[in-house]
UniProtKB/TrEMBL annotation:
Keyword terms of this UniProt record: Membrane, Transmembrane, Transmembrane helix
Top-rank taxon: Bacteria
Transmembrane segments: 6-24, 36-57, 77-98, 105-124, 130-148, 160-182
Keyword Membrane: yes
Protein name: Uncharacterized protein
Length: 184
């Protein structure tokens, strides 16, 4: 399930997924269900994301001289840049469309779906099956959120509370495996 050839990329995946956990759980604070427990759970996800990001960034810095799929001038780097900017363009275009058509409730789940889908080509760019697992789970969460009750909580809450554990779990798995393969 894990390709350990470019272990630093796994460490960076852990760091990035930690940041993403923090962001999605933060967006989830928009309008959670009534009761303080939901805010506490979101904050715990955020703290977990920050801890993961901290260990991931420190590990990446410590092992920055090790090989990466995204070597300068490589086809993988080009593919990564193209996928990233396509993702950004799609998110911006659809967000503008939703705002103009008064359907802002669709922004968070749509962003989550786009993020999930963008992991599909990145799984091939990085040669990392774990990223395909993230693609499937995150895309599924985004789709499920479209059907969850908006009167109970904002779609951003559902996105944060459901995707946060996925990002945190996969990020932790990537970080531990990457650091283990690097011998630290």
């Amino acid at each position: 399930m894990l390709n350990l050839e470019y272990a630093r990329d796994l460490v960076m995946t852990g760091a990035l997924f930690g940041v993403v956990t923090f962001v999605w759980a933060g967006w989830g604070q928009e309008r959670p269900p009534k009761g303080v427990i939901w805010r506490v759970l979101l904050v715990l996800l955020q703290v977990g994301g920050l801890v993961l990001a901290g260990f991931g960034i420190a590990g990446a810095i410590r092992h920055w001289d090790t090989p990466t799929t995204l070597a300068s001038g490589s086809p993988a780097l080009t593919g990564y840049i193209v996928v990233f900017w396509l993702e950004v363009a799609a998110i911006i275009a659809l967000t503008i469309f939703y705002v103009r058509t008064d359907r802002t409730f669709l922004v968070a789940p749509t962003v989550l779906i786009i993020v999930g889908v963008h992991f599909v080509p990145l799984a091939f760019v990085f040669g990392q099956p774990l990223i395909m697992v993230a693609a499937i789970l995150i895309t599924a969460v985004g789709i499920v959120v479209l059907f969850l009750p908006r009167e109970v909580a904002a779609p951003s809450f559902w996105c944060g509370i459901l995707s946060g554990p996925v990002f945190l779990g996969i990020g932790t798995w990537a970080l531990v495996a990457g650091l283990g393969a690097l011998g630290s």
